[in-house]
Design brief:
The chain is α+β, with helices and mostly antiparallel strands. It has 3 domains: 3-153, Immunoglobulin-like; 158-198 and 350-371, no CATH class; 204-345, Immunoglobulin-like (Sandwich), CATH 2.60.40. It contains 6 helices and 21 strands. The chain has helices at 3-21, 29-32, 155-197, 338-341, 348-360, 362-371; strands at 24-25, 33-36, 43-49, 54-58, 61-74, 80-88, 97-102, 112-124, 133-142, 147-148, 204-208, 219-222, 224-225, 233-243, 246-256, 262-272, 278-290, 295-299, 302-306, 312-322, 327-328. The longest helix is centred in the middle third of the chain and has 43 residues, at 155-197. The termini are far apart. 34% of the residues are buried.
Length: 373
Amino acid sequence: MSRHSNLALITLLGAATLCAQGGDVPLDPRNSYKVNFPTESPVALVSADWGQSSAVARGGALQVDLHSTLVLKNASPRAIRGVSLLVLAQEVTPGGKGSVTVPSLDVQPGETFPVRIDLRLMRPLAAPATALVEVGLDGVLFEDLTFFGPNRLNAKRAMLAWEMEARRDRKALLSALESGGEEALRAQLLAALARRDSQPQMPMQVARALPSTNFDAGKAVSFALLHLPESPVELLSGEARMAGQEARAPHIEVQNRSRKPIRYLELGWVARDSDGREYPAGTLPADVSLAPGQQSTIRKDHTLRFARPVTGLTAYPSMVEFNDGDLWVPPQSAMRDPRLASVLPVSGEMMRLAGLYRRKGLAAVVQQLRAMR
């Protein structure tokens, strides 16, 4: 047995003792954590700081709280736009794995960048005598939208969508700069901040529906539907059973208006409270098989659980994936409709650039827009 395996075994035996006593488990960063990238990885590990991480015995398991900053280097000849890491304590244990995805990057070849990991994972004490936590590479998205990695967590789809939204918003900001000068750009950034501040969120959780005999089944309520310009999917009708903070068993009729088959879509939700105020409330994914022109009903045996009681829901298509891997996200033209602009969430890229404006001024934003055009 190797020196590192011995150290890991000692750590686990110590954890077993402390499990009976109840208390923190001492961790040695030299063997408790491992970053394992493939030899052909386009990113390389420069350094890892695990100093704030800890583990606590909980019954027959370890609760591992990860608080770490990894410094990675772009070891490829192409600029990187996004990175996703798989963080694994135990493959099959509930709570045993997580992920960290960093979109909206602009990392040139040879440059370094930080990735922050803040996760809580569970690992049984009877696990093999290996590192407590292993960090692997799930995917890298390059500037030409090619992808490297096993994509075990389906990060590719999300990173492509974020990058398409980022390019859409950078193009709109650059257009404002070129047509109206720096004051027009400043106005766009301030408008994004104001829209974000005026859009209080209503968090939504998706849970398996309980048997209807266990509670009030609620009343059937039809969704309001938003029609986005250029959307390849038309939402025709939808309904759920509403009860207090829950919308149960939602189903919605959709039609493929495009010329390509569709295999996946996400529905965005807007919740309305008893005072008539509307809140962005997240998205609901759906695997579909829609040929061009075909209609289908998406049925979810789930409960949408909101932070507060809701009286109505509005649905809209927030992302569509075609069979060939191409994606559609809402275009900039959707923001020109006041009704849509009031409920569509501000993108992460727009908020990143607005934050850059607040920290470093307009010149820094202009420089990035021109460098990433």
